[in-house]
Amino acid sequence: MTGVSVLTLVKNREPHLAQLIEGLRRSEKQPAELIIVDMSDTPVPQPEADFPVIVHRLETTALPLAAARNLAARDATAPHLVFLDVDCIPLSRCIGRLSETLDSEDALLCADVRYLGADDARTTWDDAALLDRGTRHPVRDFPDAGLRRETNPGLFWSLAFAIRRTRFTALGGFDEAFTGYGAEDTDFGFRADRADTPLLFVGGAIACHQHHESFEPPVQHLDDVVRNAALFRQRWGWWPMQGWLDAFAAMGLISQSEDGIRIRRRPNASDRAIAATAHPR
């Protein structure tokens, strides 16, 4: 089985990062390296692990996801890349299943993400406990074992995915014209599809998503979502993130038409409270 570089981004979520590293420590297949791009307000301490951990400091007040992922990938040395959001705990077979699949499939792979509650991974845990507590994604359908070819590239999501380093380079990585948060992963999925790169959902490659405060819709990223949605529509001919845009419109934050999107007002404390209540996980 080929070597794997695991890549993650962190911004002010050091406890989540510690659990991600603990998941890698327990992994049946150890990574050749963990590369961290740190965008935190205060730099994270150098983590200790049984495998090399490289921390790149990226000073930013924003959340430049495309640029940060590309930065991590540029320094990766292994033939296989596994991207994990810092919120994810890879279960013991996750990294191995993704790597063994990439040995035979030059494809874009998604791991099966299970969503945890607020206290599900804060103390002692093992694979069985997290599997018992985690809930499946309501839309993305994963097999219990084997592979499922997904024909809708819009269902690619960057929370936990894997790809050969050569394929990632050939695709040009994430497009850094998408600045900040939103649509950069959908664009990547469509570019991969255009390049005849299959999108495969990998059964048995399970990562558990740790709970954190969040907003639905993501009102804190209003400007990024509007800007990146317009760029995506210019390139692909349709609006991405339509559910978020509809929610913004219903809150009176934007108006949307065929001609484009106009921001009508800034989110206030009431908007943030409503968005936080609507998304308890």
Provide a descriptive summary of the structure in words.
It is built from nine helices and twelve strands. It is globular. Helix content is 32%, strand content 22%. The longest helix has 15 residues, at 222-236. Strands 1, 2, 3, 4, 5, 6, 7, 8, 9 and 10 form a ten-stranded mixed sheet that branches. It folds into two domains: 4-209, Spore Coat Polysaccharide Biosynthesis Protein SpsA, Chain A, CATH 3.90.550.10; 219-278, no CATH class. The chain is of the alpha/beta class.
Please identify the top-level CATH class of the largest domain: Alpha Beta
What low-confidence regions span 5 or more consecutive residues with pLDDT below 50? none
Structural class: alpha/beta
In percent, how much strand structure appears in the residues? 15-25%
Shape: globular
Largest sheet: 10 strands, mixed
Helix segment tally: 9
CATH topology of the largest domain, by name, is Spore Coat Polysaccharide Biosynthesis Protein SpsA, Chain A
Mean pLDDT score:
94
User: What is the string of SSEs from the N terminus onward?
Assistant: EHEEHEEHEHEEEHHEHHEEH
Number of strands: 12
User: How much helicity do the residues have?
Assistant: 25-40%
Number of domains: 2
State the CATH superfamily name of the largest domain: Spore Coat Polysaccharide Biosynthesis Protein SpsA, Chain A
